[in-house]
Hints:
Elements: E1 3-8, E2 13-18, E3 26-29, E4 40-47, E5 51-54, E6 58-60, E7 65-73, E8 78-84, E9 90-96, E10 98-104, E11 109-117, E12 123-131
Parallel strand pairs: 3-5
Antiparallel strand pairs: 1-2, 2-9, 4-12, 5-11, 6-11, 7-10, 7-12, 8-9, 8-11
Amino acid sequence: MEIEEELQESEGLQEYIETEPTPGATEEIGEVSGDARMSTRSFAWIVGSYVLKKTEAFYVEESRSIEVYVSITPSNKQVRAGIIGLDGTKRYILVTGSGVHTFLVKHTGDHRVFVENTNGISVEAGGSYTIR
């Protein structure tokens, strides 16, 4: 599995890039609330152990951004939260408790927001994403 690290200086957060699926992880589609025509949508998911839960694909143009906010319960567990691009590349931050990050869209096309749980127990993930 190839992981690349990229420092986002404006926010001081480490952004990670993965070009291959996480071995052993199951992928699921999670429901989101809010009108699909609105720029902000929210989610409240139970993310099982070794599960990547993601939104349906949505279209975003290059040079726009997607701000992702996520809050995790139990708050001492760490998850990956971020976006998946058209080619399947994952860009994410590591979140313990809660976190927010703005991802610059590098390619026009379909994207998804995701939360990936690599813990041995399920977590609750609530949050939102905004296209700017």
